[in-house]
Amino acid sequence: MNTTNPAPLPPRERMKIARQAMPAQDPDIRNANFGEVNTGFDFQLALLEAQRCIQCKEPKCVSGCPVMVNIPRFLNFLVEGDMASAAKSLLNDNALPAVTGRVCPQENQCEARCVRGIKGMPVAVGYLERFVADWARQHPDAVVQPPPASTGKRVAVVGSGPCGLTAAGELARRGHQVTIYEALHKPGGVLVYGIPEFRLPKAIVDQEVDRLRAAGVQIECNVIIGRTYTIPELRESFDAVFIANGAGLPVFMNVPGENLKGVYSANEYLTRVNLMEAYNFPESGTPVLSGQRVAVVGGGNVAMDAVRTAKRLGAEKAMIVYRRTKEEMPARLEEVHHAEEEGVEFELLVAPTEVVGDENRWVSGLRCVRMRSGEPDASGRRRPEPVPGSEFVLECDTVIVAIGTKANPLLTATCPELNLNKWGNIEAGENGATNLPGVYAGGDIVRGAATVILAMGDGKRTAQAIHDYLQNPQPAM
């Protein structure tokens, strides 16, 4: 990689640089393969984009980042051609930058606060984060940090998703002995079972996990907390426990026919394809239905992942069925745009009322009703209302339900003294402390299903609280 660059431009000249587009596979090629869609900046593109940052005296982008990455600092190092310092700066703030550079909704966070975005396009922080993080992966010797002095304290982390991995990395940096317990056979949580290869290659997750292992984090897979061990048992063996097991119990529509053959939860569908490599069946040993007409119910990132996966598995028609408008979709704009480019069809302002089956109980269609936008609801979005007499049947042979997830009670059922809210999520204070001394929780098990970066923010913030507790143990909450 050529990192020879000219002297940094003055602010006026930086303002003239247009935002650089992310190179990507051609849509007609990528919709039939699982290779990564975005191919990444080269150094020259990254340099141009980084110079668009005008190095604000009070950078609002930092406060817009849930893990508080010092964005101007690592971008300035990049502009100076000092890639090692850029990488060290980024890794010091973010335990998983190669992940967040690919899947974080920067457009709603750091980039939404960028001053450049007031009169134009914001700096492409996510693309640059990915570029620097990938350089760090390719040059591991340049970012080696000296090991911290051991504190002799032991911390158990339940779950190896983005929240648990972030907390583990932060705690290990502070000298604590960390053991992660993961229920599945491979670490990474939603990063490996939920997000498809074409958005986040599993080799990248593996490298990020290996970097944590190299920092001293121990990971034990196939350990189900609530079965193998309980929280009280972990508390007896460790100085602190951090629960970050996510919210992986799928939510269904509760409509007739939902138990027909050919209906998947998005969790099962994506887990089969991503973690168990069903796309490579029969070599992988895990099958998945490859329908010709696939209807995915939902409008979030998980729905986009599922429908784009179905397209890659050969679906003639891969359809999103969403009860609101396109503008109200919670999915990232880039993911919606990529889906459209790849030939995904959108049935908007449409709500399912029944899954229709044939005489053999296989899915044959989705009975739906058209909707119209009513008055705003509690979320601020206009409430969808059925249009009388607008019922119709959408022909399909596979239905994938992607309308959300909730807390799995397996863990909490074996720790009844742990306070839960009415949804079954663990109650925790701002610093992650539960009502049990030395037991902390964060991520989706506390806040409900959310984004990778919000879970990471919880992990980073709670790791500091756990460190403070280990320095001077106090009662929780």
Walkthrough of the structure:
By secondary structure, the protein is α/β, with parallel strands linked by helices. It has three domains: 11-143, Fumarate Reductase Iron-sulfur Protein, Chain B, domain 2, CATH 1.10.1060.10; 154-248 and 406-471, FAD/NAD(P)-binding domain, CATH 3.50.50.60; 252-403, FAD/NAD(P)-binding domain (3-Layer(bba) Sandwich), CATH 3.50.50. The chain has 19 helices and 16 strands. The strands form four sheets. Strands 3-2-1-4-16 form a five-stranded parallel beta sheet, sandwiched between helices. The protein has a five-stranded parallel beta sheet with strand order 6-14-7-8-9. Strands 10, 11, 12 and 13 form a four-stranded antiparallel beta sheet that branches. Helix 3 packs across helix 9 (125-138) and helix 6 crosses helix 9.
What is the strand and helix layout of this fold?
Elements: H1 11-14, H2 27-30, H3 43-50, H4 60-63, H5 71-79, H6 83-93, H7 97-103, H8 110-113, H9 125-138, E1 154-158, H10 162-173, E2 177-181, H11 190-193, H12 202-214, E3 218-220, H13 231-237, E4 240-243, E5 249-250, E6 263-265, H14 266-275, E7 293-297, H15 301-312, E8 317-322, H16 333-341, E9 345-348, E10 350-357, E11 363-376, E12 382-386, E13 392-395, E14 398-401, E15 405-406, H17 409-412, E16 439-441, H18 444-447, H19 452-471
Parallel strand pairs: 1-2, 1-4, 2-3, 4-16, 6-14, 7-8, 7-14, 8-9
Antiparallel strand pairs: 5-15, 10-11, 11-12, 11-13
Helix pairs in contact: 3-5, 3-9, 5-6, 6-9, 7-9, 10-19, 14-15
